[in-house]
Amino acid sequence: MGKKKKVNPEDLIIPPQDQKICCTVFICQMILILSTVSIVYLTVAIYVPSSKAFSSGISETPVMCTTTRLVNIETCDWGSCGEWCLSKTSGACQQIWVNLRRNGSNIILNNCTSSANKTCYGIDQENAKKARCILDECKNLTGTFNCSAGSCINITDAFDCEFHNTDPALKCSGRRGKITCIDIQGLFSCTRGSCRRIRSPYNCDRRCLDIPTRNKNAIILSGDKVYLSNCASATDMNTTKEIWNESQENVLMASCYRIQNTSAGIEAVDCINGSTLEKDALTDLTNFTYLSYLHVFVSKPNREIAPPDYDLTIFNHSRLMINLEGCVNTLMDECNKFIKEYGKDGTDHNARARFPCFYAENDPGTVVARFSLAIVEKHFYIGFFLPVSLMIVSCFTICICQRTVVVGDDAKMRFKACGETESILPHGGPGGSADGIPLLQEDSPSHQVGVFSLH
Q1: How far apart are CA 266 and CA 19, in angstroms?
Q2: Same domain, yes or no, for 160 and 279?
Q3: Total Cβ atoms within 10 A of residue 358
Q4: CA 305 to CA 242: how far, in whole Å?
Q5: Of 127, 173, 349, 421, which is the most exposed, with the fewest CB atoms less than 10 Å away?
Q6: In terms of domains, do 286 and 356 share one?
Q7: What is the per-residue pLDDT across 220-262, written as a single tens digit (0 to 9) for each?
Q8: 238: burial class by Cβ within 10 Å (0-12, 13-18, 19+)?
Q9: pLDDT tier at 417 (50, 70, 90 boundaries)?
Q10: Could you tell me if residue 434 is inside a domain?
Q11: Which string of DSSP letters, residue by residue, matches 140-182?
Q12: Alpha carbon 449 to chain centroid distance?
């Protein structure tokens, strides 16, 4: 086989130079369009929120919030968290209300021994097994149940409920049982499918037993957790002043946000409601309900250990939002996680959510869970300079192409510096006419074919 004849680049359907120029212009136009669209989108997603954050007056020093109420609203003008900022509506949403206060004291417990931790779990409403009455799963219910829209959760093992009055019994068993109990709502006491709604007032306490209090002189409550130890002294971490020691022959009690064991001792962060309790008030074992009762009603308040929460209160009823916009754009189901973590208002008899938050002194009625000017500045600079730079570079490149690229008589694009630009085809000369049109020779194959066709 003979060698394949090399084709002159100028004779290709799309010459290399023409293809490169087309690709360059196409890419620059696409970058220009995408940059313009992104600037329009980022105006709503980044530029406006950043401007609002810079002028909000919110301090980057966090304070503390405690959730007081989670409300589901059918038609609302604000929500604690929305999944897509561009599609925020005035429809149904969830609102979280919090108590806003200054930070409590930070204390360190020194030379502690015989430490113990106890976590008092309540009912996980999300993962708990539910009996759905519409599926005839309520016909054998026995115990105390928390029901919502016909779905009931057994709380007998987790809570001890005391009540006096109930409504008439609903029979959830039998032929019409699932119809009778299809939409039951509230707290029910059931016996073999016969359920009576518990009427207010009632009291449900967590069954958290066998908390070891023997030889313990420091008890720290932190949400659903209890930390107990036998310590020599307690020191204020900010002033290094000793605020309690074992020679006082009593028990230190406080409610703290976080407890951690360090090389320096047991550190308790954001402690409030400090108090002391007489040792004879404790036995070898106790339960969570009685321990909480002792802390609130029996122990003696001690401001040196930790200030009471009412002394630190800034605002009693503030609305909580995930950020200044009350929405996120990640589309990663962040809002459900946010509501689950921050929406614990104690209605399920578990501990209320307690967390750092941020607010502006001129507007304590609104607080945000996330706020960082450094992150806002970073997002603003990236979101502004990147698309603007790409847009400028692409515009500049297109302008250069417009001034330097020409289309020849053969409809091929070339840079002016790469060859003759006035006319690509020859004007006259060998084999050509005066008008630049090539002439056919008589002995050429094309001419012979033409002559043959005439005959």
Answers
A1: 71
A2: no
A3: 20
A4: 9
A5: 127
A6: no
A7: 999 889 999 999 999 999 999 999 999 999 999 999 999 998 8
A8: exposed
A9: low
A10: no
A11: T--EEEEEETTEEEE-TTTEEEEES-BPPPEE-SSTTHHHHTT
A12: 79
What is the end-to-end Cα distance of the chain in Å, rounded? 37
Burial environment of residue 309 by CB neighbours within 10 A (0 to 12, 13 to 18, 19 or more): middle
Model confidence over 52-77: pLDDT tens digits? 999 999 999 999 999 999 998 888 88
Q: How many CB atoms lie within 10 A of CB 385?
A: 10
Would you state the structure tokens that stand for residue 452, as one six-digit string? 């043959």
- How do beta strands 233-236 and 225-230 pair? unpaired
Residue 373 DSSP one-character state: H
192 & 230 share domain:
no
* Segment 120-139 mean pLDDT: 83
Residues 145 and 230 in one domain: no
Query: In this structure, what token pair is assigned to residue 251?
Result: 């028990």
The beta-strand segments (E) located in 102-247 are 105-110, 113-119, 130-132, 143-148, 151-154, 159-163, 170-171, 186-191, 194-197, 202-206, 211-212, 218-222, 225-230, 233-236, 242-245
Alpha carbon 250 to chain centroid, angstroms: 43
CA distance 41 to 44: 6
Residue type, position 140, single letter: N
- Can you give the pLDDT at residue 44? 83
d(CA 185, CA 133): 11
Domain count of the fold of the chain: 4
Answer whether residue 38 is part of any domain.
yes
Compute the 3-state secondary structure of the chain and give helix, strand, coil in percent, each to the nearest 5.
30, 35, 40
Q: Domain limits at 257?
A: 105-120+211-306
Burial bucket for residue 79 (CB in 10 Å: 0-12, 13-18, 19+): buried
- Name which of 18, 9, 33 is nearest 412 in CA terms: 18
